[in-house]
Structures are given as C-alpha cells and as structure tokens.
Design brief:
Protein name (chains A, B): Kynurenine 3-monooxygenase
InterPro entries (chains A, B): FAD-bd (IPR002938), FAD/NAD-bd_sf (IPR036188), Kynurenine_monooxygenase (IPR027545)
EC number (chains A, B): 1.14.13.9
Shape of chain A: globular
Number of domains of chain A: 3
Oligomer: homodimer
Function (chains A, B): Catalyzes the hydroxylation of L-kynurenine (L-Kyn) to form 3-hydroxy-L-kynurenine (L-3OHKyn). Required for synthesis of quinolinic acid.
Strand content of chain A: 15-25%
Number of strands of chain A: 20
Pathway (chains A, B): Cofactor biosynthesis; NAD(+) biosynthesis; quinolinate from L-kynurenine: step 1/3
Low-confidence stretches of chain A: 447-451
CATH class of the largest domain in chain A: Alpha Beta
Mean pLDDT of chain A: 94
Distance between the termini of chain A: 39 Å
Largest sheet of chain A: 6 strands, mixed
Chain lengths: 451, 451
C-alpha cells in the first residue's frame, strides 16, 4: 500500500475520471479541476465522435471493477458495413468469432465516469480554470481570467489529463529540453445524427460500424442505445469538396444526395446538423518528457493526442492508467521511479499508435475501396485463418490484444513488406487462394519468425 | 511607396533591429519591445557563439546601406584550422580565392544594430515584457508580471522577432491548425574565452575558424577584433564526457589537458569560464503558418530556430527581411498578400537550413576527422576546381551564394549520392585523383544535369 497523497487531476474527461477512480482505490485524496461545466448538467457539444471501446479499454475498466457497469452503455460492432457507391452494401468482419469493438457515446460515458469517480470519493471542481502551475511545487493556480486574482492549491502530485490542448503540458513545454510537436491534418470532422425509427429501432444494422468511403472524404456512423446513429463526416477544410465550399443549404443537400444516396431519407436532419455543429480540427501531439520530477505527469491525450482513425484514443489513455498502476504497485512511494518507468514504458507506444492512426486515416478514406487493397485483405484473412499463430492481422493486434502498440507497428510493417511481394506474384488476382501463395507467405515469414 | 503604418517589433536582437531599419526607411513608425535590458548598458550574457556573417547576411545589410559600417566589426576567416589530436595543425579552405566567412561578436554587433535602428528613428522599449497579444487587433499587452495590470498598445502590424522562445509565436501556437515542433538535441554549449597576447595580438591564426573535433564533443574558436577568441565547447549534457560529469575544477583541468593539449597555456582561463558561464541548450523549431492575417508575422528564429552548426542562423533571419522587403515592393499596401507570399517563399528555406544545420552538427563533431570523409572532400574539391560550373560544393552554395537553401539541400543530396558511388570505386584511396574518377563523376552527373 502506498502512503496517501493529496493529488490533483487537471481534466474531468474519460482519462481524468478513470484515473481518479484508480487513485481513490489506492487510498489517495483526489481533486479534479475542469474549466468546463459539469458535463452531467449541460447539453453535449455536438463535436463528438462515438467511442470504439476495445480490449485495452475494457482491460483497464475490468481491473478496477467497472467493466460490467460500462458494458451496459455499449453496443458491440463485429464488422464494418461498407457503403461503396454503385455496389451493394457489404460487410467485413473485424476479427474472429466473438471479437467486437463497442460503440459508446462519449458524452454518456463521460457522465457515467464522473458519477463513478464521485462515488469513489473524488472531489470535482468544475468551471475552475487552471491558469498556471508551479511544477516544482506541484501548485495549481485557478481563477476567472489571466489578470484577476488567482486561487492557489498545493498538492503532492499533479496529473495532466487535460487533453490535446493541455494546460499542464503547455507549462512543461516552456522548459528547456522539452521536445514537442503538434501537427494538424488538413481534414476536419463534423458530428451529424441519423435519428431512430419512430419505434425506437435503428435505421441501419446496429451491429456494424458503417463507412461510406469517398476518396478524399468519408462518412462513418456508429449506433447508440437509443436507436440513433452518431455520424462523423471527415472532409478537407478547404478545396473543391470541403467544409468551406459547402456554404448553403442547397449545396449541402446536393452534396448528401450525390454522395450518400442510401441515406437520403435522413438528409433533412444531416443538413440541419451540418450547419448547427462545429467543424473541428484533428491533431497529432507528441512530447517528451511526460513528467516533471516526482511531481507532475501527463496522461492520455495530453501526452499523446492522436487522430481518431484507429479508434484507439481513449483505449490508449486507459492503458496509460493501467501501466501507471503497474508501476505504482512495483515501486510503492518512489514516485520518481514510478513516473520515470511509466513514461519510458508508454512513450514508444504513444508514438506507435499515433503513426498507426495516421496511416489508418489514409487507409480508411482512400484504400478501403481499392481493389488491390481488398485483395490483400482477402489473402491476409485466409492466411490468418489457416495459420492463426503465424499471422495476427494488424487491426486485431491493436484492437483485440494486449501486445504493445510499438510491437504491433513493427510486426505490421513486416506484414506489409511480405504482402507487397505477394501482390507481385503472377496472376495474383486469380491465384490468390492457391497453395503457392500460402507457401510463399510462409517462406517470407521465415522458418522461425513468428509475426 | 507604402502607406505609413504604426508597427511593433517584439525583440531587439539582430533580426529585430535590422528589420526596424528596413521599416523605418520604408516610412513606417517602429516601436521595438524587449523584455531584456538595453544590451548597450549591460555586460554580455556569457552564452553567445560568435557569428559567422556570410553572403546572405551581407546582402541584406548592403541593400539598406549598412554593409561598410558592419564590415568594420568583422574579421574574415577563409579557412578552417583543424586541431586533430596527434596530427599537426592543418587547414581547409572554405571556398574560392576571396571567399570568407566573417567572425563578429554577437554582443558587439547587436549594440551597433540598435544604435543604427535608433538613428533611423525606431523607438526602443527595453525591459518591457510582452505578456499577451491580441492577434486579430494587433494589440500588445506589457507589464511587470502576469498578474499586475498591463499596458495596452494598439498597432497596425506586429512582427515577432523574439527568437526561439518567441512570445508572439507562443500566442499563435494556441490556435487550431497551427503546426509546431521544438526538438532539442542532447548536446549543450558553453562560451569560453582565449584572451589576447599581452601585446593585443591573437594567440592563434586570426584568419581561421578553429575546430578541435573530438568525436562526441568539439571545441571551436573564432577571433575577435581585440585579439581574443570566443570559443564554444559543444558537449553532451549527460554521459561519460559531459557537462554534468565535469563538476570539479580538477576534472575540468584534466579534461582540457587531455583533449586540448595545444591550448594548454589557456586552461586557467577556460576553467574559470567553464564554471562561470551557463550551459545552454540548442533547439530546432519549425512552425506554420508564420503569420496571422495581415496583422502579425514571425521573422528570424521565432519562425525557424536552428542549431548553430552551419553558421546560418542570423544569415537566414537577415535573408527573411530581404525577402519580406521584396514582397513589400511588389505588393504595396496589401499586407495580406505580402505576408502570404513571404511565408510561402521562406518556409521551405527555413526547413532546409534547419536540416542542413542539423546534419552539420553530425558532420563537424564526428566526420571531420574521418579518413573517408576527408577523402570525399578532397575528391569533391578537385572536381569542383576542374568543373566549377558543374559542381558547386554544398558549403559554398549555402554560404557564398544567393541560391535558396531548399535548392542547396536538394543538390547537396544529389552530390552525396554521387560521392557514395564514387567512394565505392576500387582502390579509391590511391586512385582518387585519376581521370577515371573524374569521368565517373561526370557520368553520374548525367550529360545534361548541372548540379
């Protein structure tokens, strides 16, 4: 058991509130600051992408006894539903029998997590903005504005769980030798909704992650418990087909009619949301170190914000907490060592999931409709079924395993090199399921190399 | 002629003060803010590396009529003096006859530039720290601290010439879609001095840039007008031989004796400086955009801080000013267009000189003593002498030409690929000046490709 500390968490999002539960159960005092109002008392922002909880997220919840409670908020999706223009709808299974990702509304989960953290004894201070932090003293200064008098709070430890635009990291960034990058992609997103049928049922299959890949842009839809779908339109900020170019109701209507004919009955609603909801940017953030001495540590998006295209943002943040807890169990009250080993363990994995997420952005928007890409997936799938030990697909390794993101990236790269050679085989389009292809893959994998 | 604007420059360094002269001569009102005291009234910081003014710097000074004045502060260096252990001192010419870089003390130049800007009518506000900037309104807020009342200044335009840790950029960085990175290298530097002889003469050749390459660390020395040399010791922060490990006078003495035997008579002085002067970090900073609407623009290190190993930091900043001025001449009062074209013209060059400077860090510390590297330089030199049109050495293109950094990087990469092949030729060590080698290079350059 650790000595009880007085700990601040900045940020009452998913990672902040789950971390609060973990720290409370470990016997610490926990105060959570958030500049925003209590999400339980306000309408949702209209800028959320539904969450895809998968293995890493569930593991972290299970360890602290919250899995069952959260399962009730989630719908399992075991496949992609591909809405490719001029083709009938088709499905791609995500993994093996029984494997699924889970669609959860961010807002609903966040409300529940705050309830759970409060029940565990954490104290929330909403609408209290952190303006400055004395890293060495673990002291937080909050106030109404930059120039009005501030309130000072002294803690033993501070966690920055305050997301991509973290104030805690911002303070650390002004130090010498703090490496940092923020890179925005040229694509934005917007939340849209497909409402439930009048009887409360879903208008589309509710066990699928729906994708309308359209090259430079893409629509996705994930089901909610109430029969609605939360959709996300990903599209460039500027250019021919872009958020900037669609600036009238007529253009929005024409856009939805042209590109999404199979959901045209919902256009009125999509169009309303299109002009009501904000257009949001997406950023990859990398930094190092993730801690200041034994006083302050970053966790979740504040340490490694990623683009959302692998559905791993929250899962990676929850896994951070689980790894931090491993280090707490091993090193007791030596917070210097806990933070040091935590950041060394997690930094390569943060970098790896950032890279994988960025690549999936390319893959989901353009490649999912590409015949050679689909052929590759077909070959991989068959080979993986016949040789499940030798070939775990990258998506499965990231989504359904506990193996590290860094390892997944490395093995995924090797698999890509192998498949690039296989796709060069003569008449691969017709011979793709021949024994020669299978043998060639085994040969490329090497006798003793398990990837 | 442009309409006269009321312009603020944040930062009274070299770029800020030269920009002030340019803007004054173009008829604008100019106020320069600096949080530091007037450098003309205080001792130097002891953290400077001497400047190596070269073609781009001189061009920008010449254009505004300041070249002759500044030449008086500079000493031409036409070669490297290589102090390689267990070898006699030897020299490497930088370029062709008459080509040289110019050693100038940063502090002395900065004092002079501020005098010149003041003479041109710029108003300096020293010890006035900018705490906040309203980008849209081009308004600056200064004050004693973050919480005391601030003074508000409204301008038409603001330039951030406030260096690597720019407050202006810091404000821009908090915007969405602002790409930014800061990357520190693990090597630090420290200013040291070799004093003049009693008669005021230099102790080492004063027309050379002196280098003691020692693998993981390196000492350099550049002459001053007063007979002294400003030296810079580049060395890792931590590790076996590092600033951290040399923590006693005895260790410092042993270090200088072991690695720099040819300057041992100056060890007492080097040792004194070693403990007196700060150990400083080096950072590469990249960002984009470099401007906010037609209101605010970054210039010099604030837009593209680089490591100092190509001696181009100030030269690149001065070239920024010259390019900005081109755009002012072309686009008159259309500051939106001026800023837009300025950043588009300069961003790729900022990135290129960052890359070249980082590579030179590797080259200067480790490769300058490597036999194959020296052989490569020998072959290149001979070929360039015989074919001056076909082969401008990378260093010359960066240092002695007006061609863009981006072009220099691209052509330099091609030259590297060619030389990698040439060094593979049989018995190249003995045949390096044979006609076969010359022919092979010509062949690799391609019949019509001039690099």
């Amino acid at each position: 058991m650790q000595q009880s500390k007085n700990i601040a968490i900045v940020g009452s999002g998913l990672v902040g509130s789950l971390l609060a539960v973990y720290l409370r159960k470990a016997g610490h005092q926990v105060t959570i600051f958030d500049r925003r109002p209590d999400v339980r008392k306000v309408e949702f922002s209209g800028r959320s992408i539904n969450l895809a909880m998968s293995n890493r997220g569930w593991s972290a919840l299970r360890r602290i006894g919250l899995e069952d409670e959260i399962r009730k908020l989630a719908l399992p999706l075991d496949k992609r539903a591909m809405h490719v223009n001029e083709k009938p709808l088709y499905f791609q299974k995500y993994g093996k029998e029984g494997e699924a990702i889970y669609s959860i509304s961010r807002g609903i989960l966040n409300r529940k997590m705050i309830d759970l953290a409060e029940e565990a004894g954490a104290v929330f201070k909403f609408e209290e903005k952190v303006w400055d932090i004395d890293l060495k003293q673990a002291t937080i200064y909050t106030g109404d504005s930059e120039t009005t008098p501030w309130t000072e709070y002294k803690f033993d430890l501070i966690f920055g769980a305050d997301g991509a635009f973290s104030r805690v990291r911002h303070k650390m960034q002004r130090q010498s030798r703090f490496n940092y990058s923020q890179h925005f992609i040229d694509v934005a997103y917007k939340e849209l909704t497909i409402p439930a049928n009048p009887d409360g049922s879903h208008k589309l299959d509710n066990a699928s992650f729906h994708i309308w890949p359209r090259g430079k842009f893409m629509l996705i839809a994930m089901p909610n418990l109430d029969g609605s779908f939360t959709c996300t339109l990903f599209m460039p900020f500027e250019g021919e087909v872009s958020f900037e170019s669609i600036d009238t109701e007529a253009k929005a209507e024409a856009f939805f009619e042209k590109y999404f004919p199979d959901i045209k009955e919902d256009i009125a609603n999509l169009k309303k949301d299109f002009f009501k909801n904000p257009t949001s940017a997406m950023v990859t953030i990398k930094c190092f170190p993730w801690r200041y001495d034994d006083k302050v540590a970053l966790i979740g998006d504040s340490a490694h914000a990623i683009v959302p295209f692998y559905g791993q943002g929250m899962n990676a943040g929850f896994e951070d907490i689980s790894v931090l807890f491993d280090k707490m169990e091993t090193h007791g009250d030596d917070w210097d060592k806990i933070f040091s080993e935590y950041q060394i363990a997690r930094k390569p994995n943060g970098d790896a999931i950032a890279e994988l997420s960025y690549r999936n952005f390319i893959e989901m928007s353009s490649k999912t409709a590409n015949p050679m890409f689909l052929l590759q997936k077909k070959i991989e799938k068959k080979f993986a079924e016949n040789h499940p030990e030798a070939w775990v697909p990258l998506y499965s390794r990231v989504t359904f395993s506990d193996h590290s993101y860094a390892e997944a990236l490395k093995i995924g790269d090797k698999q890509e090199r192998i498949m690039a050679e296989v796709l060069q085989m003569p008449d691969i389009e017709s011979n793709w399921d021949s024994p020669e292809v299978e043998e060639r893959i085994l040969e490329l994998l090497g006798e003793k190399v398990t990837v």
